[in-house]
Every structure is written in C-alpha cells, then in structure tokens.
Design a protein that fits this description.
By secondary structure, this protein is an alpha/beta fold. Helix content is 42%, strand content 19%. It has one domain: Vaccinia Virus protein VP39 (Rossmann fold). It is built from twelve helices and seven strands.
C-alpha cells in the first residue's frame, strides 16, 4: 500500500458521517462486560492522578459519540477530545456545549493535536490504533504529549494475527463472519474477502482503508509495548475475548481467547531516551 495516512483519515471521515452507528459493529460499545471493563480501568487511572495531584486532564483521540468521554468525566477528569470525523465532532460539540470540562476539536488531518503544544496527564485511544497505518510512530508521538508521571491507555485493537494461536484466530474470524452474514451486502463483502485472501488491498475501497489493520495483520501489541517501555516506567498488555455477536460474546468469554488487547502505561519518564525533554 502506498497511500498516505491523510487518505486513510479522509476515508474514515467519509465512512463515519452523519448518522453513523458506532455501536453496531463495535463490541466494546455494544457489550456491557467490555464497557464495564474499560470504565473500571479509566476510573482507576483518573482517580490515581487526582489523588496524586488534585486534577486530571485527559486527551481522548477519536471519541466517536462520547461513550468514554462520559466515563472520564464521571471519574472527575477534564477532557480534550479530538475527532477526524467532522460529523462526529459536530455532534460532540453540540452534546457538550456549555460543559466547562470538555473541549472538542475537529482534527481533519490527525496532526493538529501535535502542533498545539499542549500536554496532558493521560491519553486515551479506544478502538483507534488499528485505523492508523504506522501505529507505533503514532503512539511514540502521543507519548510526547503526556506529562511526566502521566499515563497512556489504549483498548479494543486486534492482537497480531501471525502470533495468535490458531484456535484464537479461528474463533475470532469465524464468529465475525457468522455475524457479517446477517448484515447484508454479501456480494461486496465476499468480493473484499476473496481479494484480501490473495493479498490484494485497494487504495480506494473504504473497507480496506478504514479498518486498516483489522483486514491485514492485526496490531502488534508487543511492538507497542516495547515502544511505550521507552517512555513509561510500567507498561501492561492485557488481552481479552471480543466479538460483534452478543451470543458468541457470552458463549466464548469463559474460554479466555485473546482476540483483542489493551495497553496501560503508567509513570511517564521525566525525560525521553537520550535525555530529550
């Protein structure tokens, strides 16, 4: 693939337009057990920060319609939200109009937040990194926005397919395709599936650009862990079972199949490796 990240962002903007249903295909929004897990983790991070210094200012990159913004606010954080979808940013601005603890920015290029120069006590990326072609560099740059002593949190990205046990990969992809059969437009879906089986990806098909690493190799959680370890004292990778269908989510959760992962990095270093601030 030769496309620049900006073209991927443009495809996501178009695909997540007005009226887009974030919940339908998003297990972390659809299933109570996953929402509760994320809520608990975010509350703990925010409360640890407030106990340490009295306040907590969080950057949430790609907030969708604000599910986790609400969790952060309930925990006591001030939240700065960025969105690459213009429709979602507009909705968020309307939803949080007059709310002093929320600032919403439409970041068309995905670069504005890095140019602003502001730093934060924590950064949250929920179901985001698999959309980013070079996610390791992106996380490196986000780490530079975290105040010393602060934290980074990501969740709901697919584990790296080449490293997955076969039974995990079969369960993950099999339950997805079973769910996908009920969603309609099977001709387009089958065509995309057969094309990708041959290793061919489109420079223009939004389905290949939006869920960028979902349709490729997944996201390398160990590469991200290694990158974060250069900037934080404590880095945890956690894996869990996640699928779109409520039935398969309930049935296979006890098997502890690690289809998806999250990262919690605490205690941002005072300086970057090599002594840079």
């Amino acid at each position: 693939m030769t496309e620049e990240p900006s073209s991927v962002i443009a495809s996501q903007n178009a695909s997540h337009g007005e009226g887009h249903d974030y919940v339908k295909g998003s297990p972390h929004l659809r299933h109570t057990v996953l929402r509760s897990m994320i809520d608990d983790q975010l509350r703990k991070l925010v409360r640890e920060t407030i106990e340490r210094q009295g306040t907590c200012h969080v950057l949430e990159v790609g907030a969708g319609h604000g599910t986790f913004t609400d969790f952060l606010l309930a925990a006591g954080a001030k939240v700065t939200v960025t969105e690459a979808s213009e429709a979602s940013a507009t909705m968020l601005k309307e939803r949080y109009a007059g709310h002093d603890d929320v600032a919403v920015f439409y970041d068309r290029s995905g670069e504005d937040i890095f140019a602003d120069g502001e730093h934060f006590d924590g950064v949250v990326c929920a179901s985001l990194l698999h959309h980013i072609p070079d996610y390791v560099t992106f996380v490196q740059r986000l780490s530079g926005l975290v105040q010393p002593g602060g934290w980074f949190y990501s969740v709901q990205d697919p584990t790296y397919y080449p490293r997955r046990p076969r039974r995990v990969h079969l369960a993950g992809r099999g339950t997805f395709y079973a769910w996908r059969l009920a969603q309609g437009d099977l001709k387009r879906g089958l065509g995309a599936f057969l094309r990708r089986r041959k290793g061919a990806y489109s420079d223009t098909d939004p389905s290949d650009l939006v869920e960028y690493h979902v349709v490729r190799q997944g996201v390398d959680e160990l590469a991200l862990e290694a990158e974060l370890a250069q900037h934080f004292d404590d880095v945890e990778v956690f894996t869990y079972w996640s699928t779109q269908s409520p039935v398969f989510q309930r049935l296979l959760a006890p098997a502890h199949l690690g289809t998806d992962f999250g990262l919690i990095a605490r205690k941002r270093h005072e300086t970057q490796p090599g002594g840079a601030a």
